Amino acid sequence: MAMSRSIGKGTNAPVKDDTEIAKLLNLLRNLPDDERRFGMLKRIAGDGGKLTPKWAPADQVGYVYWPGLDRATRELFDSDLSYLADRDYLRREHHDRITRCPACRSHNLNIREVCVSCGSTNLASQPMLHHYRCGYVGAVGTFGTEGDARVCPKCDGILRHIGTDHEVVGEQFTCRRCFASFEDPNVEGHCMSCGERTLAEKLVFDDVFEFEMTNLGHAAVRSGRLFDREDEQMTEPDLPLYRRQVAMSLLREEVRRQARYKIPFSALVIRTRPPGGSAEGERAVVKRIRDKLRDVDHLGRYNDDVVLVMLPATPEAGARVVLDRMLGRVSEESGARVSGTVVTFADADHVDVALDNASRQV
Ligand SMILES: [Zn+2]
Ligand SMILES: [Zn+2]
Ligand SMILES: [Zn+2]
Fold first, then answer.
1. Mutual orientation of helices 33-46 and 18-28 as an angle, nearest 10°?
2. Which ligand has an atom closest to residue 152 CA?
3. Is the CATH code 3.40.190.10 the one for domain 234-361?
């Protein structure tokens, strides 16, 4: 503890203690926007390049990224995280989903089985048995007993061995309040904040994200600043490559436009960095790809190892020719193993699924 304090001060060394992190973050709070966001990115880089939410049952939202911050600071930092993710310094990854009350958004829910007719939680349940010989199905309490064995109330047969002469086919619930009997109780969430009662299927969910540094994020930390000047906002530093968010919106726009005018449109998904490849090697490959494209084609980032080539007015067969020629020439020139595939899009709504599938193939 004492050691991490002396090392941590003023450096990027990981600081594990929550109060200490809160103290450091509170120092960021009063800086101008760009310095504060950069400081946050540096903090995440120093903590291993990943920011994972922590569950906080007493907290209104239910989780925090950094414990110990006041509400205003936390809201400011949450919006900074969105800012950094929207500009590709961080990547949002699915972490979990949190269940909420639709009336007040609280996550403090008591979820349990209730009576289908009166909603009471005062339920009793017993197994239901099926007697093979006569087909009788009923709650275990409706069977008689003879020594250790049960007796079927319909045919007076003896039930000796489960699986041989009878089976358990579920449970029967009885409400101790209204005496209704049923096999499938309702599942309901009772909000401990506002008292609202909501059937399970009507409860709402929020996605909870974790954040991971991208190559662009690491590059920013190395350069000592965010690449947010007007001339830097569209492309990656010193690369003829649109940033991911820019590339994705260009792509959606192209898909919509070409569909409207019934013009064929294809894209290529290319792995520019083989497993274990370096960032510098990747940059060289990206530049070579750009050299081989037409002016009307767009080149953009898909993820740290994969780029996206948009080929307007190009049918699938034409795109295949472009891909084969390009992969051959780029691999030969750079000596890197570059692989890729052609993607076409049914409509703008399915862009993400199509790209996700394609990027896993390359
Ligand atoms: Zn009832
Ligand atoms: Zn029977
Ligand atoms: Zn509520």
1. 160
2. 2
3. no
Question: Phi/psi of residue 72, each to 5°?
Answer: -65, -40
pLDDT, tens digit (0-9, with 9 covering 90-100), for 21-66: 888 888 899 999 999 999 999 999 999 999 999 999 999 899 999 9
Taken in order 176, 179, 181, 184, is the CA torsion positive or negative?
negative
Structural domain spans, the chain: 2-102+204-218, 116-184, 234-361
Distance 181 CA to ligand 2 centre (A): 21
Task: Give first-to-last CA distance, the chain, whole Å.
Answer: 46
Q: What percent of the chain has pLDDT over 90?
A: 79
With H, G, I as helix, E, B as strand and everything else as coil, classify residue 295: coil
Residue list, CB under 5 A from ion ligand 2: 131, 134, 136, 152, 154-155, 157
> What residues have CB less than 8 Å from 181, skipping those under 6 apart?
139, 172, 173, 174, 175
- Nearest ligand, CA 142: 2
Q: Which ligand is nearest to the CA of 155?
A: 2
Q: Which ligand is nearest to the CA of 165?
A: 2
